Amino acid sequence: MRYQVLLTAVTLSLGVWACGERNDTDVDTSTVPFDTGMAAPATAKKGPNDTSAPAPATPDGEVLGSFIAANQHEVEHSRLASQQGSTQPTRDLGRGFSRDHDDLVQRARELATKQSISPAAPAGDPLGLPHSETMTSLKGKTGVAFDRAYLQHEIDYHQGIIKSINSDWLPKATNQELKTFLQQAVPAFQAHLKGAQDLHAKLPAAE
C-alpha cells in the first residue's frame, strides 16, 4: 500500500511545515469557506458613489493568485475523485489530495494577509483555462475509466504546477517570503505526482 504511506508522509510534511510557518500572530483562516475565487486581504468597503479604480495587480499578487487558483482547482478535482472513484485506493488518494491542497490554499491566504499581497489571477492563466472542461469530462466518466482519466490528469496537472513554480512564479515573485513559500511547496507537489503515477501504473490496461 505504497500510496497510503506516501499520503501519510505528505500529510506529515505539510503539518510540520504548517507548524513551523504559523505562530500566534498569523491570521486564523479556519472559518474561510471553500470557494473558487480569490480571497484577498480584507479592504474597506467602497461607498455607492466611489468610482475609484481598483489597485493594479502586482507581480506578487498575480503569482499568489495563480497559486491559490491552481490549488483550489485541485481541491475540486480530488473531492470529485473521493466520491466518484471506482476503487478505495482512488477515493483515498482523492481525499488526501483535496485535504493537502486545501491546506495550501489556507496558508497562501494567510501569507497574503501577512505580507499585504492582494491575490489576483492574471488573464489567460494556462492552469485555470481548462478547469471547467476538466470537471465536465471527469463527471461524465465512471468506473475504471474515471480512475484512469483522473489519475492521468493529476500526473499532468502536478507536472504543470511544478513547472509553473520553477519557470514562471519564482522568477516573477519579488517578495522573499512568497518565494520561500513556493520553494517549500514543491516537495509536496512532487510527492503527489509520484503518488498519482504509482496508482495509475496499477490500473488495468485500457480496453
Helices and strands in order:
Blueprint lengths: L1 H20 L37 H26 L3 H27 L16 H9 L3 H30 L3 H26 L6
Helix pairs in contact: 1-3, 1-6, 2-3, 2-4, 2-5, 3-6, 5-6
Verbal overview:
The chain is mostly helical. The protein has one domain (2-18, 57-201): Ferritin, core subunit, four-helix bundle (Ferritin, Up-down Bundle), CATH 1.20.1260. 67% of the residues lie in helices and 0% in strands. The chain is built from 6 helices and no strands. The chain has helices spanning 2-21, 59-84, 88-114, 131-139, 143-172, 176-201. α2 runs parallel beside α4 (131-139). The longest helix has 30 residues, at 143-172. The protein is elongated. Residues 1-48 have low confidence and may be disordered.
Short description:
This protein is an all-alpha fold and 207 residues long. 67% of the residues lie in helices and 0% in strands. The protein has a single domain (2-18, 57-201), classed as Ferritin, core subunit, four-helix bundle (Ferritin, Up-down Bundle), CATH 1.20.1260.
Mean pLDDT: 79
How are helices and strands ordered from N to C? HHHHHH
Structural class designation = mainly alpha
Supply the CATH superfamily name: Ferritin, core subunit, four-helix bundle
What's the shape?
elongated
Q: What share of residues is helical? A: 55-70%
How much strand?
under 5%
Please count the beta strands (DSSP E, at least 2 residues each).
0
Determine the number of helices (DSSP H or I, runs of at least 4 residues). Answer: 6
Q: If classified by CATH, what would the architecture be?
A: Up-down Bundle
- How far is it from the N-terminal to the C-terminal residue, by CA? 25 Å
